[in-house]
Design brief:
Blueprint: H1 2-17, E1 47-53, H2 62-66, H3 68-71, H4 86-95, H5 98-101, E2 103-109, H6 115-119, E3 123-125, H7 130-137, H8 139-151, E4 155-157, H9 160-167, H10 169-178, E5 187-190, H11 191-196, H12 198-212, E6 217-221, E7 231-233, H13 238-247, E8 254-259, H14 262-266, E9 269-275, E10 278-289, E11 292-296, H15 307-327, E12 333-342, E13 345-355, H16 369-381
Parallel strand pairs: 1-2, 1-3, 3-4
Antiparallel strand pairs: 5-8, 6-7, 6-8, 9-10, 9-12, 10-11, 12-13
Amino acid sequence: MIVFLNNIYLYIYMAADKNISTLIGGRKKSRQSKKKTQRKPKTKKIRRIGITVGSDNGEKHPYFEKNKEKYSILDDLIDTSNGYPYDYAVYAECKALEKKYNVEVIPLDGFNLDLKLCNTCDCIFCVIEGTYNYMYYGDKEFNHYINTLKKTTANVYPSVKMQEFILYKNRYMKYLNKKSYDIIDTEYISLKTYKDDKTRTLDRIKKFIDKNNYKEIIIKPEIYGNSSGIKIYKNSNINMIKKYLDKVKYDYKNLLLQPLISDFVKNWEIKTYWINGKHIFSYGHKKISDGRYELTRSKSMGGKLDDKLVLKVVKIGKQVIKDLFKDKESLIQCRIDFGCCVEGDKDKYFINEVEVCPALALEDSKTPYYHLLAKEIIKKCCE
């Protein structure tokens, strides 16, 4: 009897040790438990990225020739006989990364955004932006561009709020001035206010000119590109300004009145390009004649720009980027332009412009900015 009980205890102990469940009453589960149903691995959603395009000014670069296969997708979209426009180049670069990042990249007509198509995207990166809508098609198309991006369910980069902050130069120039950056002295003119009260607006303009003893002035639309709508007066005559304001198209909304700085035209404007807050390259830009410009790099790269001067403006640009990231939003790309000169000091440049959807220039490198930018766009949209 004792042996029998011991055998039972031994059996129970061995069953437990082998992880076989024993039920009180002598029933036990079969060793052959049912096989677990294997779940199919979840398919990662393919993110759709829209790139706004629409320009027609092509450029040529050895890089394009070496990467004909990559850029062949543009043959059915545009005429590539004169080279590749920068916005389409960015699109082609992003398209080439589809398989690597498991994304789908589509072009969006920046001049006629379709809300339904925008809503099929997870994110939209704006290369062609509102300035061009405004320049070529006026206020109606500009508003359509802005309102479509405000309504879309896609994430928009840069955000509409940031685009408007930069498009309306009045806003970001006041911001830079408040931050104590050197900018050109500017008087802001609201055409609506001028239309409502011409005398008061003209008095304010006259005070601005007389107080600073400006002999030559320049008037330009707040939203503009390619020097469109700019008027220069060699003699600051208030009557001539009145004639201009009476004739100017009211689609412009606001104008900027600034002193004409002769050193600005005579010296290089330095354009600095940034990706995710990192300086990528800079070049000098100078007008030679109507419609003709000369471009150059720093002397260390075989150009004409003083290397120390480039380092100075890049240092300022880095601080501007830091402030914008902190106070506004992080930017995938940015361009900051510097002009000569502050109080006639040719070693001291002022901030002339900030662009968050800049026209991109081809730099003298084996791998253009487009390629680097495309990678960051994809990464941002895959976050």
